[in-house]
Amino acid sequence: MKLLDFGLAKLAAPKSAFTQSAASVATNQPTVLPLTLEGTILGTLGYMPPEQLEGGDGDARSDIFAFGAILFEMTTGRRAFTGKSNVSLMAAILDHEPPPISSIQSISPPALDEVARICLAKNPDDRWQSAADLLHALKLALKAGLPSSVTAAAEPKGGKVRERAAWAVAALFMLATTAGTTWWWLRSDPPPPAKVSFEIPGQPSPSLLQFALSPDGANFVAPITTPQGAALWLRQLDQIEGRTLSAAVQGGSFPFWSPDGRFIAFFALGKLNKIDLVGSPAQPLCDAAEGRGGTWNRDGVILFAPTASGPLFTVPAVGGIPVQVTELDQPRQETAHRHPKFLPDGEHFVFFVASGKPENSGIYLGVLGSKETTRLVASDVMAAFAPPDHLLFIRENTLMAQLFDPSRLELQGDPFPIAEDWGSKSTLQH
């Protein structure tokens, strides 16, 4: 077995004496031009993804494509893409789909067909988005095991069939281990995050809790005060200038985004409203006298705090009559439920509980359809879930993070500081 760099992958020459075909040679031929020559394609063509062949930038998903090509070759004994020349090979990668692994290697687990197909998707957005996702898929394929026809045939015949079946399972386990190593490598040395700084026009809100990033991290919205009145200010982070939504908004506090990033919900004029960024005017959804944050799931349900002191409610994203979700716990002297945030399943959520007893204030866990809540951690204000596995919260003027398993709904390990001097009480008003 050879450990390969999937970015510049190359298989070792076979030790057998037979001569490789022209297609095989072309597939296995690395770039031979000087690396400093402008326009040079760096990598081994047979394992390079379409976006790199077309001159685009690669990322972790490009490595996943290369992994898929190697996975296909290891399990079938054939290359995923072939051509008689570099040009025809690139055309195959850009336009052709390799056959299912199971159509070539009958002892291959059927689940492996889908794993490889997604690895080798032409569009990076259609591939596994991280090595962690790929590792999970490979483990599921390993757990699913071999086709029943193969395992049944192995019993009476024994010999070669049983040996090949055992080899297939062993190879799949090795691939899962390799994916785990790849995931660790990609995660252990991530590229430095881009630093973005800009000035917000007018008078920004004094509360740090009133800024909101879009789900894809590409847009930023904040309430501001201008000579014409209160408004929401929107900026794409890759653009120099932002724009004010004052004409349609007439104010706006505690904004939050729809899951698809098309709408912004906000509180203004005693209502919970939403605005379509395509250009439609703001639409009131329901009454909210003094809103304190909200969250929007993929089922079109908005969970929000309509007042500064009271429980949480839900309302359809198209508008309607709010339905109470939580209840203030009198023995715990709870005074307010605020700033809910849905977890990935769209059912469970975290939210801030204010209490007359400081030891009862903090971040709590709730679920739609139940008024039962569980205290997770002490905090001064709202919390946020940072995918895939961290809960962010503020404690004693410090932004903290702690591992959180969204499937088991449990905190793990100890909290650790992210940023100190997060703000004064006035900037953390809630």
Shape: elongated
State the secondary-structure class.
alpha+beta
Are there runs of 5+ residues with pLDDT below 50, and where? 1-40, 147-158, 169-179, 181-186
Q: Name the CATH superfamily classification of the domain at 288-419.
A: TolB, C-terminal domain
- The percent of residues in helical segments reads 25-40%
Query: Which architecture of the domain at 288-419 per CATH?
Result: 6 Propeller
Portion of residues in beta strands equals 25-35%
| Tally of separate helices | 10
What fold name stands as the CATH topology of the domain at 288-419?
Neuraminidase
Q: Main beta sheet, described?
A: 5 strands, antiparallel
Q: Quick check: average pLDDT?
A: 77
What Rg do the Cα atoms give?
Answer: 27 Å
CATH class of the domain at 288-419: Mainly Beta
Tally of strands: 21
Cα end-to-end separation: 58 Å
Structural description of this entry:
The chain is of the alpha+beta class and 430 residues long. Among the domains are: 45-145, Transferase(Phosphotransferase), domain 1; 288-419, TolB, C-terminal domain (Neuraminidase), CATH 2.120.10.30. 34% of the residues are buried. The chain is elongated and about 75 Å long. The chain is built from 10 helices and 21 strands. Helices cover 25% and strands 27% of the residues. The strands form 5 sheets. Strands 1, 2, 3, 4 and 5 form a 5-stranded antiparallel sheet that branches. A 4-stranded antiparallel sheet has the order 6-7-8-9, with no helix packed on it. Helix 3 crosses helix 6 (111-119), helix 6 (111-119) runs antiparallel to helix 7 and helix 8 (148-157) packs across helix 9 (159-188).
